[in-house]
Design goal:
Length: 486
């Protein structure tokens, strides 16, 4: 076992320094800076804008209230867990805690001033909390971006030891290895005694010992975190005893249940008799078909058509001048509930492009499902830059307006692709297809077909309006960066 441990240490490198423990301090400094800037802006705004003229000396009152509000604001963020190490790096919990703490602070200031009859400037109050909340969220966002950048470069990683059966370890390991920005470096795995003859799992995780020696091995490889996958510990009592021992060594414990592609909004943990039960709500695809999303699509597509109308006219003229051919390309696509519709695009290929598909499939060895290729010979000269920046898809705004498509959703596919669906892929048809979606903002055509399909199914099962807005915002970055576009 010593040889394997040495090999693991050589592969992962030295244990990281204590910089991870400085993350809460970095967040505290960021928040204090943003709140202080907010207070300064509120004072200046109250002095120069004079929203609510008052007969009393507002400046003197602000000299007393300002520092108290800033310190109290930071204290309430801390009380809401805004500086817990577990919230940094991923998920929305960090932002939610900051937002909740800000609302509580605003309520406490308002109610407190009323009860003690302290005449706080209303202009200061409105500017402070109206500007402070977005600034705090922006500060946390920039801090997270910096953290992700550092982790992609190999810094600020926690050393992870996996515990479980090889198959379940691989299921968790593939998620962690595919997302380096999470900051987890897997140093090895401990498995049941009967499987310790393996040198590594199928995903390449080194096997460094048996589960019965977990605590000693974790200490030997200097693990920061233990991930318990299925089969690592036989009983709940064994897990509790092991967690107590790991606590003495300062090693954190994470339980990784066999649940994948479920958003946090659908998961609720409810302890019953000391047993934490994970409740998974029904998929949210039905909500994506209701009036709220449809109203958003109608207003959004109409606004975008007006905004892009000069560009639409220019592109149409450019295509016609190139070869005097048709400006629009109408293609039969399969929409919600399997209904066919005419999907509109600016024409970017030669007129006989469809007749060339079968030949190109044979040359590239691809199937009809998600058929894409770089340097496609069918693409016209203006079509290259239209596809590069996704301008060719702008006419689909009219599909959105008339209800065939949505602004956000799985990409519409042709009947040949739908005929190849398997493994639950038909669930894509439960919602309207979209102009943009998760796979477009996650890599577009650079993604493997399996990953693109997984992201589409994740979107269907975990739809939310907040996620739609987030995808639309991220789409601009993906389009202007031309990531995976061809």
């Amino acid at each position: 076992m010593t040889t394997m441990l040495e090999r693991v240490d050589q592969g992962v490198g030295a244990r990281p320094n204590h910089a991870l423990r400085l993350l809460p301090l970095a967040a505290l400094i960021t928040d204090f800076t943003m709140v202080s800037v907010t207070a300064l802006l509120a004072v200046l705004g109250r002095r120069h804008l004079d929203f609510f003229p008052n007969p009393y000396d507002a400046q003197e009152a602000l000299g007393v209230a300002g520092p108290l509000i800033v310190s109290g604001w930071i204290a309430i963020i801390a009380a809401f867990g805004g500086y817990d190490r577990a919230v940094f790096g991923s998920g929305t919990d960090e932002y939610k805690r900051v937002v909740r703490a800000t609302f509580v602070t605003a309520a406490a200031v308002g109610i407190g001033c009323y009860l003690v009859k302290f005449q706080l400037s209303r202009g200061f109050f409105l500017i402070a909390f109206g500007v402070g909340l977005p600034l705090l969220v922006l500060g946390r966002f920039l801090l997270r971006r910096a953290l992700h950048r550092a982790r992609r470069r190999g810094h600020l990683h926690a050393r992870v030891l996996m515990a479980g059966t090889p198959r379940q370890i691989d299921e968790v390991a593939q998620v962690l290895q595919g997302k380096p920005w999470l900051g987890y470096s897997i140093v090895g795995a401990v498995v049941p005694s009967a499987q310790t003859l393996l040198e590594e799992t199928a995903a390449g995780v080194p096997v460094v010992g048996a589960s019965e020696e977990l605590v000693q091995i974790a200490d030997a490889v200097e693990a920061d975190v233990i991930f318990f996958a299925g089969g690592g510990i036989e009983t709940g009592d064994d897990l509790k005893q092991t967690a107590w021992q790991l606590e003495e060594h300062g090693i954190n414990v994470v339980i990784a249940p066999s649940v994948t592609d479920v958003s946090s909004e659908r998961i609720t943990v409810r302890p019953i008799g000391g047993l934490p039960l994970i409740h998974i709500e029904h998929p949210t695809w039905a909500d994506a078909s209701r009036w709220g999303k449809r109203t958003f699509d109608i207003l959004g597509s109409a606004a975008l058509i007006l905004a892009f109308s000069p560009l639409l006219v220019f592109v149409a003229a450019r295509i016609w001048v190139a070869d005097r051919g048709a400006v629009l390309f109408q293609h039969h696509r399969v929409g919600r509930n399997g209904e066919n519709f005419e999907c509109l695009k600016f024409r970017t290929m030669v007129p006989n492009a469809e007749a060339m598909v079968e030949q190109l499939q044979q040359q590239t060895g691809q199937s009809a499902l998600l058929f894409k290729m770089k340097d496609d010979p069918r693409i016209t000269k203006p079509g290259r830059w239209l596809r590069r920046f996704s301008v060719d898809e702008l006419p689909q705004l009219f599909n959105v307006l008339r209800g065939d498509m949505s602004l956000v959703g799985p990409r519409p596919q042709v009947q040949k692709e739908v005929d190849l669906y398997e493994g639950g892929m038909e669930r894509r048809l439960l919602v309207r297809p979209g102009m943009t979606g998760l796979w477009q903002v996650s890599g577009r055509n650079d993604l493997a077909p399996e990953e693109a399909r997984r992201l589409d199914l994740y979107y269907v099962d975990n739809w939310s309006m907040i996620q739609d807005v987030s995808i639309l915002v991220r789409t601009f970055g993906a389009v202007f960066g031309s990531r995976g576009a061809y």
